[in-house]
Amino acid sequence: MQHFDLLSSFIEKTDGIKNFKDLEEHFAHAIRPLGYEFFHYSSINQLLEHQKDIISLGNYPESWCDEYMENDYARIDITAKLALKKHLPFFWHDPKILKDITEEQMVIFHKAAELGLRYGVTVPLHKNHALPAVLNISSGKQELPTHTHHILHLMGLYLHEAALTLQAAEKAHQKQKPLLSKREKECLNWAIFGNTDNQIGQILDISHNTVHRHIESAKRKLSARNRIQAITTALKQREIHL
After folding, report:
1. What class has domain 182-236?
2. Under a CB-based contact definition with an 8 Å cutoff, are residues 135 and 40 in contact?
């Protein structure tokens, strides 16, 4: 299959993907005709407050993933560091990369090779208002043809866009889901009118202790210090209505 046909097919099928698992399998299948067996796509997170925004996809051998995490290789990984500075793909065996690599960083390449990731290319991915990401695509069988980096770059951009789109859809879905349970809403609704736990319990035919637990749970979910703040926040978020 010609590269243009491969790219067209990849893009067409990517547009219809609805979850991360299918996206992961789709990309793994798409790179095989190019001679690649493995890939790993991940957001590059430098700030703890962005931890929830990290996306990670791939089919790297589990043994390598364990090795990478246990030894905290992310701290020194040359591919991740260069991906923050570069915008075009680069091959791991590029002499320009190897001439500046440290012994510690070279150990990562050797360990990866032992576990089936001998040859590879890194695709840096950047987009405004999103965490940068790095896409590593590799093979353990053969040195890879350098002319594949153009199509891998385009495929990587579409993968990145698809992953961010799925993430945004998940966030939107989570926002639409009610934060409070039905009982928590009922208890807060009756608390608006100044009813005590006992009074609310009598109205809803539940114990005052159960009412108290529901209201305390609502306070935690709404990050409220007291009932008044919980009611005010719930009204603003349209969890309850007057």
Report:
1. mainly alpha
2. yes
